[in-house]
Recover the amino acids of this structure.
């Protein structure tokens, strides 16, 4: 199942403290408030992430969820994943190895876990009608 | 026989086994050998082994910055402690060797920390004498250690060895193979492994504290709130504070004066002295100290500026008391203002539930807690007491 809605990929800055988080949130706000937004945050450059940064991520995901969209994280640096694990927020996001995979995941109908199973194919609707 | 020892810390050796790959045998500049493991610095455990073998004179040459935290704490009254610049430490070791020999030492043990090795001292010295070596090195199963014994009369050999930063001997001799416990202490992961191995009795390091339950050691003056879960094996150091709802598990070690705030999980991790870990966090497979987290899982270090996550507890009791007072003074007005001006948001239950779902009692959800509570009668009071 393909979707025509655009996927916005945004790279997060190296240091995500309160000031940077506010600035970043202001940058992405137009995308957050669009209809069913599809966002990917690239965290490959993040070297410092504090509680304000994590709060900003949570705020973003809340806004996105309100509008029936999704926010995914990609290319997490070691420092970023360490902070997300420390603050127990890693489990709230879908995390991908790179932005391409994250963007591609929006177009797939199946959940990511199902796609990764080797040999698994999306079941095609059978020609014979189901017995009542 | 007069045997003395020189212990060198805070400097890397030159032998291939001593060169750290992804770290410099230090955490935030403090050598791993001077950091405490289960209550005491690694250096003290090494010194105790030497003392038990009858070596009373131990000279410690420290090349690490003495102004760094915990360096001073690693000193002991029975050490001949000298802080020397890193560039001059080998020259200082030569001079120390000469001084010890002049004072009557017949054999001098020279070791660099470095690795923590439980070398059997008496058999090692006996081997050195039997082989009639000038210098004998200790060899572990995974490579040579920076652990030597030198004859006091062989000053040239000593000079050669020390000028080559323990990497070359003037006359190659058969090394002494140790079968004791060895930990290279090169990374934060090694520091963690030393703590875990000590819990598992693979080393001779005993946790410094009272064993309150099998596998749970608590140091003097530690404050542990009531609903804290301590799962063995774990160690809570002296004057540490573990606040309500926390979980300390899987070989975690909290060194002295650490604070673990409410609801935090510490799993397979070490908190170095004077560390504060914020509320509601999940620390796994890490070493925390000096506003820094080293992850064993990701082999990465992260400096944290946000004091709500990780910070440093003041070093002296006066500063700690002052800090508590400031926090209290800041807390009270905030709470009072919140009490006066803050409005409580009371959410009503969704009445649509009982209309849509058959057999579902929506009113039961909408009912407030006070309504649900059983009426307090004399019989209930008799049953449950005055709770």
């Amino acid at each position: 199942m393909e979707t025509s809605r655009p996927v916005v990929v945004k790279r997060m800055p190296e240091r995500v403290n309160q000031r940077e988080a506010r600035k970043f949130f202001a940058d992405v706000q137009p995308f957050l408030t669009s209809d069913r937004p599809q966002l990917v945050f690239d965290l490959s450059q993040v070297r410092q992430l504090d509680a304000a940064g994590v709060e900003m991520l949570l705020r973003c995901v809340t806004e996105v969820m309100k509008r029936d969209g999704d926010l995914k994280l990609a290319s997490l640096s070691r420092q970023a994943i360490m902070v997300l694990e420390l603050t127990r927020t890693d489990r709230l996001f879908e995390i991908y190895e790179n932005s391409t995979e994250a963007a591609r995941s929006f177009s797939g109908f199946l959940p990511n876990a199902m796609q990764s199973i080797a040999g698994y194919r999306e079941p095609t609707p059978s020609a014979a009608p189901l017995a009542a | 026989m007069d045997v003395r020892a020189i212990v060198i810390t805070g400097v890397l050796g030159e032998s291939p086994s001593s060169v750290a790959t992804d770290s410099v045998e230090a955490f935030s500049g403090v050598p791993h050998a001077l950091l405490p493991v289960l209550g005491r610095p690694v250096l003290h455990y090494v010194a105790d082994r030497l003392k038990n073998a009858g070596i009373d004179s131990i000279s410690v040459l420290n090349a690490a910055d003495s102004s760094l935290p915990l360096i001073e704490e690693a000193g002991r009254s029975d050490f001949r402690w000298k802080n020397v610049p890193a560039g001059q430490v080998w020259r200082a070791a030569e001079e120390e060797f000469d001084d010890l020999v002049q004072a009557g030492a017949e054999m001098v043990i020279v070791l660099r920390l470095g690795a923590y090795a439980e070398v059997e001292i008496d058999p090692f010295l006996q081997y050195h004498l039997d082989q009639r070596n000038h210098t004998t090195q200790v060899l572990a199963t995974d490579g040579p250690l920076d652990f030597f014994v030198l004859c006091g009369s062989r000053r040239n050999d000593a000079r050669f060895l020390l000028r080559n930063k323990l990497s070359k001997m003037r006359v190659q001799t058969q090394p002494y193979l140790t079968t004791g416990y060895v930990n290279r202490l090169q990374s934060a992961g090694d520091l963690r492994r030393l703590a875990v191995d000590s819990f598992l009795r693979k080393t001779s390091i005993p946790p410094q504290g009272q064993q309150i339950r099998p596998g749970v050691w608590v140091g003097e003056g530690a404050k542990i709130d009531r609903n804290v879960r301590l799962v063995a094996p774990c160690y809570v150091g002296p004057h540490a504070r573990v606040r309500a709802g926390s979980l300390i598990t899987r070989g975690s070690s909290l060194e002295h004066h650490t604070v673990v705030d409410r609801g935090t999980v510490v799993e397979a991790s070490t908190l170095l002295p004077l560390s504060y870990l914020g509320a509601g966090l999940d620390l796994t497979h890490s070493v925390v100290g000096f506003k820094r987290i080293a992850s064993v899982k990701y082999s990465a270090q992260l400096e944290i500026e946000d004091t709500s996550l990780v910070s440093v507890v003041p070093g002296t009791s006066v500063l700690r008391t002052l800090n508590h007072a400031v926090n209290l003074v800041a807390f009270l007005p905030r709470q009072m203002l919140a009490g006066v001006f803050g409005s409580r948001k009371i959410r009503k239950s969704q009445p649509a539930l009982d209309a849509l779902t058959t057999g579902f009692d929506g009113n039961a959800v909408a009912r407030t807690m006070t309504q649900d509570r059983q009426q307090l009668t004399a019989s209930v009071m008799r049953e449950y007491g005055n709770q």
User: Anything to note?
Assistant: Chain B touches chain A through 18 residues (CB under 8 Å). The two ends of chain B are 71 Å apart (CA to CA).
